Amino acid sequence: MKTLIEGATIVTCMGKTIKDGCILFSDRILGIGKTRDEVGNVEDARVINGEGKTIIPGLIDCHVHLGMDLENDASDTTIGAVVLSEAQECSTYGITTVRNMGTKHNADIAVRDIINSTYCKGVRIVASGQPITITGGHGSSMSYIADSVDEARKAARTVIGNGADVIKMIATGGMGTKGSNPYAVQLSEEQMRVICEEARRAGILTGAHCTALDGAKNAIKAGVRSVEHVQMNEEIARMMRTNGTYYCPTIVTRYNILHLLDPSLQWLKQKARPTDLDGKKRAIQLCHKYGIPVCASTDSMNSSKAEHAVTKLGVSLATELHIYVEFGMTNEEALLTATKTASEMLCIGNQVGTLEVDKCADLVLLDGNPLDCIDNVSRVVKTYQRGKLSFSA
């Protein structure tokens, strides 16, 4: 079934905006233009009046955690239901793709396969399954343990064998693990190098949790594709430019941690430094200075556990983009972090991330233009995933 949306402003995320335009799509985009005649054969198409609305590519969050409430003894049915529900909820916020960066039970891999088989609707998942860390390291309760180079290689091969799209490495301690020093190095450069080697051999991605600068240096030198969280300095920025490393800031989570009021979570707040947001702002400025690609990322999840519920899945992406603009990006630059640039980092830019003929019809109809005000990304009217309506306000 073809759908035609006409009269809307179309933001292609390729430097082109079409006012009062038309877009024709089925599972893929069939045509984009100013008039019906320009988009091709609209016979039998369902027509939607987009007057006063804006169409953008489906949004991408490059760092989420699906299924973080799962117990160790959860059944396969429970696991699938929880993760699928969260994956479907993302559409409410205009999100059509997520890179999941750590989940118990490899639940994200299983649900990705269910969604890809078209049995169920849901957000496109770039899945990591379980991360790799050291004994007692950050996230060790849900990770594969590697305390040597050989163990790191074996863990990487295990993750690859599970069918992951990306391997997540824990380069430093973290905020959300009690007793973990977020500024301590964990996986070594040598361990991460063999993980990256195995990932390249298998044709999959890598990402490294890096709260501390030394851990980020190790990960970048090891060849990681993206670093998560780190507050950059000039040296790190130059290394990232040289190595073509992407940056996933997750600023909204640090903002939320610094503003925690819950007495039970003061241990988490105490790990943060009052100057952390200044450091994050400096990181965004350094990315601009050195041409480092920034990918929208939130570190968000849904959980009943207080320490895991700091940043809510879905809704937090709009806040992250708002912060990017507050820290110096233009509205267009911020939007690109969640569309074109994110798709390129995930190596799916040939499918999604921009509005082009023959790409997947992942698109969002907004009540307002994010190029005028980035906060308009939260004014979602409809979300389409592969051409099918997945959310309607």
Principal-axis shape equals globular
| Percent of sequence in beta strands | 15-25%
Tally the helices: what do you get? 13
Structural class: alpha/beta
N- and C-termini, Cα separation: 21 Å
Multimer state: single chain
Q: Tell me about the biggest sheet?
A: 8 strands, mixed
Task: Detail the poorly predicted runs.
Answer: none
Strand runs, count: 18
What is the topology?
Elements: E1 3-11, E2 17-25, E3 29-33, H1 36-39, E4 46-49, E5 54-57, E6 59-65, H2 76-89, E7 95-100, H3 107-116, E8 124-127, E9 132-133, E10 144-145, H4 149-161, E11 166-170, H5 189-202, E12 205-209, H6 213-222, E13 226-228, H7 234-243, E14 246-248, H8 251-258, H9 266-269, H10 276-290, E15 300-301, H11 316-326, H12 331-337, H13 340-345, E16 363-366, E17 380-385, E18 388-392
Parallel strand pairs: 1-4, 1-5, 6-7, 6-15, 7-8, 9-10, 11-12, 12-13, 13-14
Antiparallel strand pairs: 1-2, 2-3, 5-16, 16-17, 17-18
Nutshell version of this structure?
The chain is of the alpha/beta class and 393 residues long. The chain has 13 helices and 18 strands. Strand 1 and strand 2 (17-25) form a beta hairpin.
Summarize the structure in words.
The chain is 32% helix and 22% strand. It is an alpha/beta fold and 393 residues long. The strands form four sheets. Strands 1, 2, 3, 4, 5, 16, 17 and 18 form an eight-stranded mixed beta sheet that branches. The longest helix is centred in the last third of the chain and has 15 residues, at 276-290. It starts with a strand and ends with a strand. The model has no long low-confidence stretch (mean pLDDT 94).
